[in-house]
TrEMBL record:
All copies of domain D-isomer specific 2-hydroxyacid dehydrogenase NAD-binding, residue ranges: 112-298
Stretch forming the signal peptide: none
Annotated D-isomer specific 2-hydroxyacid dehydrogenase catalytic domain residues: 8-329
Species: Secundilactobacillus pentosiphilus
Superkingdom assignment: Bacteria
GO terms of molecular function: D-lactate dehydrogenase (NAD+) activity; NAD binding
Keyword annotations of the record: NAD, Oxidoreductase
Family: Belongs to the D-isomer specific 2-hydroxyacid dehydrogenase family.
Gene, per the UniProt record: ldhD_1
Matches recorded under Pfam families: 2-Hacid_dh, 2-Hacid_dh_C
CDD domains according to UniProt: LDH (cd12186)
Designated name of the protein: D-lactate dehydrogenase
């Protein structure tokens, strides 16, 4: 059996090599992502392991299938960049890694929320100019606030656990409520109810066709004045222009975004200076003291990176050998 792994970064390579040695399975590591220009390298392999945020297009998936590769394992959780029709048409089986580390994501969400509440960004900026005064930057306390968690999958549930550790009151919304959480009575009946009651909204939903720009002008108008938005999920869930308007008006009091709707091609690159970042809306957000932007790093812990590589390779082997895996994605 031979597997090709695309988009392998230097920090992933030792985990890949260790797995290959332990299992005695040949894995070719390719630095480039899977696209039109690299897909031909997959010829002769039995399966492909991939990670990227740019699309897995129909053309690329058709080509993989024409090489006889029907086993595709994503090293991440989100599948919104996979052309579902092409997957189905070609009979390609796709796996993801649904739980490489829910803590990695939830811990960053909580960290950023606490930074916003305690105004550390403001104090960092003030102190850099020698201003060590307190006023007017008095902080809030999480144990006095209600956090509304949208989507209670593994990451949402871990976030709830952490927010509860700080003493926050939790309410939640999910179209598929978790039975345990349901018993606790934390679910509200609608997003509108969550918007009306939450001081902080923590977003942990996958991106689907239905929820694109779910945080738009209308949604923001239903939220509490000064609401804090935490989004470590997907950029497309938030209408960035609407968010900027809501920040300008004070409707949104703070936002922590680890994702951004136009992040592909921008995040995980060094532009050399702030001015050289080629996205004015992103820079508009980055300039604000009450907005914390991180470049899609919530997943980026050593535990998560190791699990992403090794779980995806294990899934790929299952697909190749048995034609199925527990992490198979239903499109
Ligand atoms: C995911 O797992 O889907 C992420 O968002 C993390 C990143 C590797 C893309």
């Amino acid at each position: 059996m031979k597997i090709i792994a695309y988009g392998i970064r230097d920090d992933e390579k030792p985990y890949l090599d260790q797995w290959s040695k332990d299992k005695g399975i040949e894995v070719k590591a390719v630095k480039e992502l899977l696209d039109d220009s690299t897909v031909d390298q997959a010829k002769g392999y039995d399966g492909a392991v991939v990670y990227q945020q740019k699309p897995y297009t129909a053309a690329v998936l058709d080509k993989l299938a024409s090489f006889g590769i029907k086993s595709l394992s994503l090293r991440n959780v989100g599948v919104d960049n996979v052309d579902a029709d092409a997957v189905k048409r070609n009979g390609i089986k796709v796996t993801n890694v649904p739980a490489y580390s829910p803590s990695a994501i939830a811990e960053l969400a909580a960290t950023q929320l606490m930074r916003l509440l305690r105004r550390t960004n403001t104090f960092d900026r003030k102190m850099a100019h020698g201003d060590l005064r307190w006023a007017p930057d008095v902080a809030g306390e999480l144990d006095k606030l209600t956090v509304g968690v949208i989507a209670t999958g593994r990451i949402g549930r871990k976030a709830i656990e952490i927010y509860r550790g700080f003493g926050a009151k939790i309410i939640a919304y999910d179209i598929y409520p978790n039975p345990e959480l349901k018993k606790q009575g934390i679910y509200v009946d609608s997003l509108d109810e969550l918007y009306a009651k939450a001081d902080v909204i923590s977003l942990h939903s996958p991106a689907t066709k239905e929820n694109e720009h779910m945080f738009n002008d209308e949604a923001f108008s239903k939220m509490k004045d000064g609401v804090i938005i935490i989004n470590p999920a997907r950029g497309i869930l938030v209408d960035t222009d609407a968010l900027i308007r809501a920040l300008d008006s004070g409707k949104v009091g703070g936002a922590a975004l680890d994702v951004y709707e136009d992040e592909v091609g921008i995040f995980n690159k060094d532009f050399g200076s702030f001015d050289a970042i080629p996205d004015e809306r992103l820079k508009n957000l980055m300039k604000r003291e009450n907005v914390l932007i991180t470049p899609h790093i919530a997943f980026y812990t050593s535990t998560a990176v190791k699990n992403m590589v090794q779980y995806a390779l294990n899934s790929n082997v299952n697909l190749i050998e048995k034609g199925s895996d527990d992490s198979e994605v239903k499109f």
